[in-house]
Automatic annotation (TrEMBL):
This is Coenzyme A biosynthesis bifunctional protein CoaBC. Binds 1 FMN per subunit. It comes from Gulosibacter bifidus. Pathway: Cofactor biosynthesis; coenzyme A biosynthesis; CoA from (R)-pantothenate: step 3/5; Cofactor biosynthesis; coenzyme A biosynthesis; CoA from (R)-pantothenate: step 2/5. Its cofactor is FMN; Mg(2+). The chain holds residues 193 to 428 of 428 of the full protein. It comes from the Bacteria. It catalyses: N-[(R)-4-phosphopantothenoyl]-L-cysteine + H(+) = (R)-4'-phosphopantetheine + CO2; (R)-4'-phosphopantothenate + L-cysteine + CTP = N-[(R)-4-phosphopantothenoyl]-L-cysteine + CMP + diphosphate + H(+).
């Protein structure tokens, strides 16, 4: 708020944030999408700017506005998001992958509108896997030998309602992805997506919970950035 001083603990730090949900085109008028609003990712970008960071936001189909002071790159589909991330990753100190990236895209993009008269009683779509952007970015970083220099944060939205089982899923996921931290939250149709509140655990690569928060998405963003700041202070 106006007049309140915010610690500039990310001054000069270059941060790349992805937010929103990708849309995978099916034909000229249809896509496969998801329920991500982009709120949590935009909150991370917004708090990072307030704390002094140079922020680039790779934005996919946001339902929220992007505040001033953020360098915003709009993309639509997963492969565009991948290209936008790869083009900028090497010059970045921190990457926060908050976007909901479609795991699959239609195998073919039909040039004209799919017609009922052609498809008939049922329609089967063939989908192929999208690149795993987070995993690729981690691999690239490690190949550059920049493990200690670039901090990479992934997100995992899980529908598993049991806390212990959800944590186990998240631990397996961060081990698979190899990122420094994984922000895990529970989602279902009423929870997580589109809401202003969020409940998260931030895991490190060893599977330990570094921080937890249940608050508005701006506060949750600060919690995530606190973990990053602490890590960078340790790495120095
Ligand atoms: N992610 C990504 N590229 C993809 C899919 C996911 O970069 N093609 C990123 C997301 O932005 C998120 C993290 O990976 O930061 C975890 O996404 P999630 O969907 O939970 O993981 P998946 O490996 O796709 O596993 P699942 O089968 O549970 O969807
Ligand atoms: Ca996925």
């Amino acid at each position: 708020t106006a007049g309140q001083r915010v610690a500039q603990d990310l001054a000069g730090v270059r941060i790349l944030v992805t937010a929103g949900g990708t849309r995978e085109p099916l034909d000229p008028v249809r896509f496969l999408g998801n329920r991500s609003s982009g709120k949590q990712g935009v909150a991370v970008a917004s708090r990072a700017v307030s704390r002094g960071a140079e922020v680039t936001l790779i934005a996919a189909n946001l339902e929220v506005d992007v505040p001033e002071g953020i360098n915003c790159v709009r993309v639509e589909r997963a492969t565009e998001m991948a290209d936008a991330c790869h083009a900028r990753a090497a010059g970045t100190d921190v990457i926060v992958m908050a976007a909901a990236v479609a795991d699959y895209r239609p195998a073919q993009q039909v040039p004209g509108k799919i017609k009922k008269s052609d498809a008939g009683e049922s329609l089967t779509l063939e989908l192929v896997q999208n690149p795993d952007i987070l995993r690729e970015l981690v691999t690239e970083r490690n190949e550059r030998g920049a493990q200690g220099e670039q901090c990479i944060v992934g997100f995992a939205a899980e529908t598993e309602p049991d806390d212990a089982a959800r944590l186990a899923i998240a631990r397996a996921k961060i081990a698979r992805k190899g990122c420094d931290f994984l922000v895990c939250n529970r989602v279902d149709e009423a929870l997580g997506f589109g809401q202003d509140q969020n409940t998260v655990d931030v895991l490190d690569l060893r599977g330990e919970v570094r921080a937890s928060a249940s608050a508005d998405k701006m506060s949750v963003a600060d919690t995530i950035l606190d973990v990053v700041v602490a890590q960078r202070a340790n790495a120095r």
